Amino acid sequence: MEITKLTSHEQPPMDLLLLADPSPSLVEEYIQRGQCYVAKAEELILGVYVLLPTRPETVEIVNVAVDERHQGQGIGKKLVNHAIETARQLGYKTIEIGTGNSSIGQLALYQKCGFRMTWIDKDFFIRHYDEPIYENGMQVIDMVRLSQDL
Question: What is the pTM of this model?
Answer without folding.
Answer: 0.93
